Amino acid sequence: MMTAAANELKPVLVFDSGIGGLTVLREARVLMPERGFIYVADDAGFPYGGWEEPALKQRVVDLFAKLLAQYDPEVCIIACNTAFTLVGADLRAAFPQMTFIGTVPAIKPAAERTRSGLVSVLATPGTVKRAYTRDLIQSFATQCHVRLVGSENLARLAESYIRGDAIADEAVMTEIDQCFVEMDGRKTDIVVLACTHYPFMANIFRRLAPWPVDWLDPAEAIARRARSLVPQAADAVHPGNFDFVVFTSGAPDFPTRRLMQGFGLKA
């Protein structure tokens, strides 16, 4: 087991396009109580689903050049499927000394768990069209019927919902109804939530689903992976100078700041 001296504990940086990565932060904190966290929300670039790929790649790599120089984290968790499936390899190539922990659609566990063989992957259009996602299906789920459902609006709806806005059931149903497939007397039994924003709405999804399915949230698996790569510290005291949030816009609205404070982050 790796160990580090308590007085030189570097923070863990969690990055997302918006506030969806808080689902990952919540789990990571439970497993790494001795670490300080820095949460970076690229709200100036949100939502990532609508970006052209070359421009988004450039944006994220440029952002990390600044973030790594400024904060020198122990590891970086990219808590965003859209960003990691596109830019993960570029980040590792650009910053080989840094450990990047990515978020990829949980297709492998879904394929292992399904009984009906019908699995849906709910994601942003960017993640759905990425070769990375197709390769995961090819590698782990050839024996399943996998439906990729690209949602244009769900990440944005989730952001509004987390901030306390009322969301119409019809608006949510329009985004998720393609997930439910019936075929030869079998039904979809697992839906992979391939965007870190979506687990915040899992209770709504459960209520609106035409039949019960397993909604797979990758946050815990990502946090476990991060814990395995972050040195354990004996007798560490949680550092007081971290646990803050960086907004790339520099101007988050009040509900967002209040939400971050609810997650124990200085905003």
TrEMBL record:
Pathway given in the UniProt record: Cell wall biogenesis; peptidoglycan biosynthesis
- Has UniProt tagged this entry with the keyword Transcription regulation? no
| Coiled coil (residue ranges) | none
Q: Read off the InterPro entries from this record.
A: Asp/Glu/hydantoin_racemase, Asp/Glu_race, Asp/Glu_racemase_AS_2, Glu_race
Q: What Pfam family does this protein match (any one)?
A: Asp_Glu_race
Write the Enzyme Commission number(s) for this entry: 5.1.1.3
Per UniProt, what is one GO molecular function of this protein?
glutamate racemase activity
One annotated GO biological process: peptidoglycan biosynthetic process
Protein keywords? Cell shape, Cell wall biogenesis/degradation, Isomerase, Peptidoglycan synthesis
Has keyword Cell wall biogenesis/degradation? yes
Q: Where's the active site on this chain? A: C80, C195
The entry's substrate-binding residues are D16, S17, Y48, G49, N81, T82, T196, H197
Q: This protein's superkingdom?
A: Bacteria
Q: Gene3D superfamilies under this entry?
A: 3.40.50.1860
Principal EC category: isomerase
Catalysed reaction, written as an equation: L-glutamate = D-glutamate
Q: Provide the family line.
A: Belongs to the aspartate/glutamate racemases family.
Q: Which HAMAP family does the entry link to?
A: Glu_racemase
Record function comment = Provides the (R)-glutamate required for cell wall biosynthesis.
This protein is called Glutamate racemase
**Classification of source organism:** Bacteria, Pseudomonadati, Pseudomonadota, Alphaproteobacteria, Hyphomicrobiales
Name of the gene this protein is made from: murI
